[in-house]
Structure formats: structure tokens, C-alpha cells
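YM 10:42: Lipoprotein sequence, as discussed on the call
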Amino acid sequence: MHSWLKFGVVAVAAFGIIGCSSGNFLVYKDSKHFYVTSTGPELRRILCDSGDMAKIAKDSQLPDALQKDLKDGICNSNKVKERLLATLEGMTKEQRTALKTAFQQNGYDINVVANC
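YM 10:58: structure's back
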């Protein structure tokens, strides 16, 4: 196996482990992918400015306080990654599944990396 191919396999495996080892996960839409804890402008434009995060939170049918924490944690201009991670990690498996399902219902792929 070529060394660059070995590196690619290791990188993909590590990427998957990192993404699955916490409450953090990747979302993909409009040829862009990012972790929900990302602070980049693309996340803000695609998820927050579009109003998608408000729809996703509502569609998740999670408790109102948790919906607010998620919307604020993801879309706040003063985003604190550690606080959002704590919210995500504090959710039950069922709650995380409901959130991910709501993302999918709103046109997002979960834990998929775009092939460029």
C-alpha cells in the first residue's frame, strides 16, 4: 500500500473516531460540511441565517429548554464550543437521534463528508 494511501486510511479512521467519540457530529448541505460545534461562517450562513436551525430544533421535538440551548449554542455569535459540546454530550442517545433525524428531515446529511 502506498504511503499516501495508508495516510488517507488512517486519517479517515481517525476522523470517524473523533466525530463519533463525543456528541459532536458533521452536517452536510449545499456542498458544505462542518461540525455543529464549528465557529466558521459557512455554518452560520447555512444553519442560522437561513432559519434552518430554528426549524430543526422545533422538528426534533426535544424539550423547549433543550431546543433553546441548541439553537443558542449553535447560532450564538459568541459561540462557546465547550458549552455546546457539554449540551450535546448531556443529551441521551434518543435525544441525539431525534436531533439528527430533524437535521435529515430538513435536507441535511449527517456524518457524511463531501466528495470533491
